[in-house]
């Protein structure tokens, strides 16, 4: 029996359904790459390194990186952060936030925090566009200037307190495995045992046993080799 065809040139057995995964992969790969920073943004990046600006917001518009908001430094990092960042946030729009820290590097000058804000409800294309542009943005600004980087997905994470929690989590030791916990417990027991033994030795060394005069005299005689031995 001859198979029907959709067109004269396309037999039915050539047609296949594209899976959701394939469609998703196609949408990822079809994302237009963001162009490098234009001259205006490069000038803004250079201005930021003078030490007067506290915050700059960078967006992606028409596949181009553009600066869309800024604030001059007024007080400390914490005070400026909580005052300046919230009004700049567009809750449902992804953005890059450059925030100047109060610390200074001997080699590169002022240190900067980069916040990559991609809200939970952002569209897939927007998510992929911003996530894939982070490396390009950092190279354009200068990798040595960015000493801290945070990924945020909620406005509640856009606070100075969240930043310091991030710093503390970086400094904390990584969680131990069950095997590492067992080894640590064994080591602690060994240390405790060593301390107990040493303590007993020190206690014994500190004890005083008084001798009567006959014993002292016998020791003197032994020292002068008048007797062969002394039994206590």
Automatic annotation (TrEMBL):
Subcellular locations according to the entry: Cytoplasm, Cytoskeleton
Keywords, comma-separated and alphabetical: Actin-binding, Cytoplasm, Cytoskeleton, Repeat
One Gene Ontology MF term: actin monomer binding
GO biological process, one term: barbed-end actin filament capping
Coiled coil: none
Keyword Repeat: yes
Signal sequence range: none
Domain ADF-H: 33-168
Alphabetized PANTHER family for the sequence: TWINFILIN
Protein name in the entry: ADF-H domain-containing protein
Source organism (scientific name): Rotaria magnacalcarata
């Amino acid at each position: 029996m001859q198979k029907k065809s959709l067109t004269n040139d396309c037999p039915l057995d050539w047609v296949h359904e594209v899976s959701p995964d394939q469609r998703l992969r196609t949408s990822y790969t079809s994302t237009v790459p963001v162009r490098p920073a234009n001259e205006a943004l490069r000038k803004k990046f250079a201005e930021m390194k003078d030490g007067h600006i506290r915050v700059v917001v960078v967006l992606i518009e028409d596949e181009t990186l553009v600066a869309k908001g800024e604030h001059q430094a007024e007080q400390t990092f914490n005070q400026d952060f909580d005052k300046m960042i919230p009004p700049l946030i567009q809750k449902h729009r992804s953005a890059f936030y450059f925030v100047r820290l109060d610390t200074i590097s001997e080699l590169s000058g002022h240190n900067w925090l980069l916040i990559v804000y991609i809200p939970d409800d952002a569209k897939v294309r927007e998510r992929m566009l911003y996530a894939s542009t982070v490396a390009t943005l950092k190279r354009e600004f200068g990798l040595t200037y960015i000493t801290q980087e945070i990924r945020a997905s909620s406005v509640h994470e856009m606070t100075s307190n969240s930043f310091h929690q991030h710093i503390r989590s970086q400094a904390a030791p990584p969680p131990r495995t069950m095997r590492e916990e067992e080894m640590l417990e064994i080591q602690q027991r060994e240390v405790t045992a060593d301390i107990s033994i040493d303590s007993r030795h020190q206690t014994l060394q500190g004890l005083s046993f008084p001798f009567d005069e006959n014993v002292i005299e016998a020791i003197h005689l032994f020292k002068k080799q008048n007797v062969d031995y002394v039994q206590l």
